[in-house]
Amino acid sequence: MKANKTEDSLPDAEPPRKLEHLERGEPKNKAVGSAAVISSLKHINDQAGPVRGTKALLKMNQKGGFDCPSCAWPDPDDERSKFEFCENGAKAVATETTKKRIGPDFFSKYSVAELAEQSDFWLNDAGRLTQPMLLDRDSTHYKPVSWEDAFSVIAEELQAADNPDEAIFYTSGRASNEAAFLYQLFVRQYGTNNLPDCSNMCHESSGAALNQTIGIGKGTVTLEDIEKTDCILIMGQNPGTNHPRMLTSLEQTVQNGGKIISINPLLETGVKAFAHPQKVSGMMGKATPLASLHLPVKINGDLAFLKGMLKCVLEAEARKPGSVVDQHFIDTYAQGYEAFREALDQVTWDSIVEQSGLNEADIRKAADVFINAKEAITCWAMGLTQHHNAVETIRELVNLHLITGKIGRPRSGVCPVRGHSNVQGDRTMGIWEKMPEMFHERLDKEFRFTSPRDHGYDTIDAIQAMHAERGRVFIGLGGNFLSASPDTHYTAEAMRRCKLTAHISTKLNRGHLVTGERGLILPCLGRSEIDQQKSGEQFVTVENSMGVVQQSQGRLEPASSDLLSEVAIVCRMAEQALGAKSEVPWSGFEDNYDLIRDRIERVIPGFENYNQKARQPGGFYLPNGVKERKFNTASGKAEITVNPLDPIALESGQLLLQTFRSHDQFNTTIYGNNDRYRGIKNERRVIFMNSEDMKERGLKAEQPVDITSHFEGETRTAELFLVIPYETPRGCAAAYYPEANVLVPIKAKAKVSHTPISKSVIVTVKPHIA
Ligand SMILES: Nc1nc2c(c(=O)[nH]1)N[C@H]1C(S)=C(S)[C@@H](COP(=O)(O)OP(=O)(O)OC[C@H]3O[C@@H](n4cnc5c(=O)[nH]c(N)nc54)[C@H](O)[C@@H]3O)O[C@H]1N2
Ligand SMILES: Nc1nc2c(c(=O)[nH]1)N[C@H]1C(S)=C(S)[C@@H](COP(=O)(O)OP(=O)(O)OC[C@H]3O[C@@H](n4cnc5c(=O)[nH]c(N)nc54)[C@H](O)[C@@H]3O)O[C@H]1N2
Ligand code: SF4
Ligand SMILES: [Mo]
Fold it and tell me: Which of 98, 196, 257, 647 fits a disulfide with 459 by CB distance 3.0 to 4.6 angstroms?
């Protein structure tokens, strides 16, 4: 097995190992306020200009406008203000509505290898893609290709495959419900379930834990619940950067008397205090304090922390029987309590303290708040999901809600805060390598074919299959598979062994530069743009983090007349690749998206009267049994589970590294080199460390270092990072994704969910060798 080309002569898969000019300040004490407003306006003005930019912002998250393309935080159900967006939503829109364009001139000016020497910021900043481009066999430059020829290339490679499982169809969570539904239909008619998605790297662990324990892989609360509850645990999530409008809701929670507890190795600015940018007080700098308690848990110490919380719950119950544990809920709706109690009895406070890195008194304080709260919600994101034992940790968090009965009633429940704006909807539409049998039966009946039942590849399987030349064709519906995936160099080798890699994209990214024998870029319309089809202007639908499905209609002129919508691309690709094999009226779907929604309604439960309900301002909630205490698990009961502690053993000198987001990026899209809240300006190649850990290694602030990861005897190195002393527990470190992805071993994945362990990479840090 050999790569088609040798590594050395090829475009680099990693962002350039080159420093900018770091300026370092103190972490900020409050989030948003005027700095955020100034930052939003700057991004909009620089990219889209005041007219196009303002028009876009005023349509975003409005009933009748388009859904913010950034995160999945919900919009208010009722009244909306004129400005339903945040700084990072504005950046996402600025990047999509930019006036900059890249066409054939750009691609003839720069070879692919030259493009690879540029930073991720530069690649994204180049502008919107405007025409389909082909990187032909042994070519150095992308050249324009007609849509017809582009689809012929795809059809040719798909038809040449020895079997359908040689093709891999990735989806990123920005695709609309309509595009995603047709895409999975095309893939299954082609004959495979190889539908890896960004969720495999994201909330898969949440889905796995929640499906098993409460019978639905989604959250169980609404925005109103968040604002009116008595207690919110925020675990492993940085809302100030990644879900900024959550701060508006958290401010409400606090003003309504609720308490917020932060559980995070870092005290993130967004949970310290919030200055509302649309209130005079906020603009004057007056901030509402948010978290009343911060527990600086060690990386991967959450399972131990939760065991501490649960022990406190049982102790409080023993002190005053019938006051804390909800025996009625357990008896009526759940099972597994006895085994759970016995197992928890065996866990000592010493191990809890040691593994969480927290002291017992602090855990008891947090437990008191949770216990005394009539209603409580736990929110979490990647800080919990990207560890080897992520599923166990999330199951334990569910235990906390189950044994106290704080679930399935107003203002109480679990809230995995989703990432991409439609990642939850894509799953609902069937983007998953292992959909349940019921889905297949309904799909087959509606479209009169037999969909394959063997499970397909998830993200890690897909990379390994391409590496082993079992996967030969890669198609990406959005996203940046190369840079988002673990083990950048291994993934690059995998991509290079393909016959064809094709990306449906709005903006240029590194994934377009590391290709198979042939590479295709298929440029599509963005969310903000008018989608004109034969039957008129179309809208699409998306589902947010709280299960609300609503319409999104672009209002701006498309970036180029040569762009196709994602739906159109999928339809034409399917028509050409499947030919007579498919009876699906692909071109009818392209002409009129209502016809797609009619089919979704017949295949997926919860979408009755879809076309009508999608047109209701504000959309509609999908059914969620847990809200009525219906648990759709195998046993029909909520499962209280036993989740043994399974700490990561570090050898001397080793640290646990989390790879996370700066304030100026959306995943692999880099908007700028600043991380304002953490006091970092103009540099991304930084590693945050505890100052004692620095001292122990003889490292000085801003000293250049190399980071080496260790896994099953293998090492991987990321060169040239500057050390930043930062408040975090000893033994913990942090660096930005995607720069640090070279360190994440391909084989290091969570049990059950197979999510890459991007938040607990074992590393050593040494002075940089020039
Ligand atoms: N502006 C912007 N918005 C985004 C994104 C973006 O890149 N930019 N990405 C979107 C996507 S796809 C997603 S999934 C979400 C991600 O949203 P987040 O999950 O908030 O993203 P991360 O930056 O990965 O932050 C993880 C947080 O977990 C903490 N953490 C790390 N390890 C641990 C641990 O072991 N235990 C605990 N308790 N905490 C830990 C980190 O300190 C950090 O605060 O955001 C979405 N929204
Ligand atoms: N080390 C490490 N790795 C991680 C993570 C981490 O925390 N640490 N987080 C993981 C997570 S949570 C996620 S979700 C994944 C994200 O993985 P992806 O979803 O694959 O990555 P993105 O960076 O969001 O994709 C950006 C690209 O999407 C394209 N795009 C933007 N808008 C549109 C659109 O409307 N339509 C289409 N077709 N294309 C569009 C643009 O070309 C852009 O360059 O990364 C994962 N990787
Ligand atoms: S919170 Fe998320 S969805 Fe809402 S405007 Fe900000 S980035 Fe967009
Ligand atoms: Mo994500």
Answer: 196
Which residue, 576, 595, 615, sits at the end of a domain?
615
Minimal CA–CA distance to 359: which of 106, 729, 56? 729
Judge if 191 and 327 occupy the same domain.
no
User: Is 384 a pocket residue for ligand 2 (Cβ < 6 Å)?
Assistant: no
What tokens were used for 339?
A: 């085994």
CB atoms near residue 547 (< 10 Å): 23
pLDDT in the model for residue 4: 42
The beta strand positions in 296-343, using DSSP E, are 334-335
C-beta separation of 765 from 723 below 8 A: yes
Confidence of residue 285 (pLDDT cuts 50, 70, 90): confident
Structure confidence at residue 40 as a pLDDT band (50, 70, 90): confident
Residues near ligand 4 ion, CB 5 Å cutoff: 202, 419
Q: Return the CATH number at 227.
A: 3.40.228.10
Measure the CA–CA gap between 666 and 685, rounded to whole angstroms: 16
**Dihedral angle sign, alpha carbons of residues 717, 391, 268, 661:** positive
Domain match, 578 and 451 both: yes
Q: Is residue 195 domain-shared with residue 209, that is, in the same domain? A: no
Do 278 and 384 belong together in one domain?
yes
- Residue 624 CA, chain-centre distance (Å), reads 22
- What distance lies between CA 536 and its chain's CA centroid? 33
The C-alpha atoms of residue 144 and residue 107 are separated, in whole angstroms, by 9
Please name every residue paired with 262 in a beta bridge, in sequence order, or none if there are none: 234, 294
| Identity of residue 748 | A
Give dist(CA 683, CA 19) in Å, integer.
7
Q: CB of 741 closer than 6 A to ligand 2?
A: yes
423 lines ligand 3 (CB under 6 A): no
Identify the pLDDT of residue 250: 96
237 alpha carbon, closest ligand: 1
Amino acid code (one letter) for 82: K
Of 57, 68, 75, 664, best ligand 3 pocket probe by most atoms within 8 Å of the beta carbon: 68
Q: What is the DSSP letter of 640?
A: P
- For atom 23 of ligand 2, the residue with the nearest CA is 668
Instruction: Give the pLDDT mean for 568-578.
Output: 98
- Look up the domain containing 333 and give its range: 204-416
Model-level pTM? 0.97
Q: For residue 209, give the 3-state DSSP assignment.
A: helix
